[in-house]
Structure formats: C-alpha cells, structure tokens
Sequence to fold (207 residues):
Amino acid sequence: MRYTKELSDLIEEFAKFPTIGPKSAQRMAFTLLRKSPEQVKKFIRIIDDAKTKIRYCQKCFNLTSQEICEICTSSSRDQKQICVVESVKDLIALERTHEYKGVYHVLGGIISPLDGICAEDLNIDELISRVQTHLQANEELELILAIGLSTEGEATMLYIKRLIEYLKIETGKCNITRLAHGLPVGADLDYADETTLAKALSARVLA
Ligand SMILES: [Zn+2]
Fold:
C-alpha cells in the first residue's frame, strides 16, 4: 500500500533535512498529522517568522532580526578585537565559553576548491574593508583567526593573513592571532567542549 500524495510529499520534504533518513521523516510526518490544526498553524507561523525575519548582520554576518546584530551594537564589546569564524555555529560555540568580549566576522564557509568554494564566495572582502576602516582611523586591532584545524581551514587562515599583510596602510596596526593548539583537528569548533575552547582562546598565539 502506498501513502496518499499529500503524505508522501510531506515525508519527502522532511527527508530533505540533514541527518533525517526515510524512517525519521516518516515519524515526523505522522507526528505532525497527530497535532491539532491550531498547533500546526503555530508551527507554520514560527517557520514563516524565522524565514522572513532572520537575516545576516550587515557588519559581521551573524544571524539577526535587526540590521546590525546585538553583538556588534553592544557597548560592552571591544570593536577592535575581531574574531573570524567559519559559521554562526562556531560563533555560538565561542559565545558559550563566556570568555570572549570582542566582536566577530562570519566567513560563511572556508576556501575549499574541491567543493567549488573559493575566496569570492566568502565574506572576505567585507572583512578586509572592516580591517581597513580601523587601520585608516589609526587604530590598533586584533584579528583572531578561529577557524577549524583542517587543511582547508589552514589554507583559509593563511589566505586572510596574506591579504592583511598586503594592505599598504601606513597608520594603525593589525595583530593577527590564532587559537592555541589542543583543539580536535579536522572538526568544527563547536565539537570542542567549552573549557577546551576557552583555553584555546585565552592562550592564543601570533599567526
Ligand atoms: Zn554583527
């Protein structure tokens, strides 16, 4: 026996989510069908709100419902310390340590030629202009490269470091640092526990 078209469409949509296999998709579809019409309407509204209201921060590319995110607008955060991360997931992992009081820049990925991701696909130009603005204002800033320790992560950090070094700005100074060793190699930052991440952050070294 086959499912009706509506039900198989629903299962198919759930199965498009990462790590959701056909069995889980089926369970999710049946769970949804057991809910009251009000509960389903609420669920649809939440999805719609998330999709229409959440966007990227114009400055750091964190996810936010404002034009500029809460971290960038906070007066208690040091604007001259910019932590460069691969994804919002990694930003959240660093926030969980409660150690870091600077701001962020989310790249939106790492350079990975095999996956067809090159520097132009990432928010690197925006990072360079942020750094330039600080340097032109004769400020000293720190750029913390907090990218996962994979071959692609290393290549991305080196690429950013070279770009900053090539900036011919006479005023200001940009110190480039990276997280201390001790993080799992090849894994995302959010796989590391908070203590390890906090230690790697506070013992960071010159890149
Ligand atoms: Zn922001």
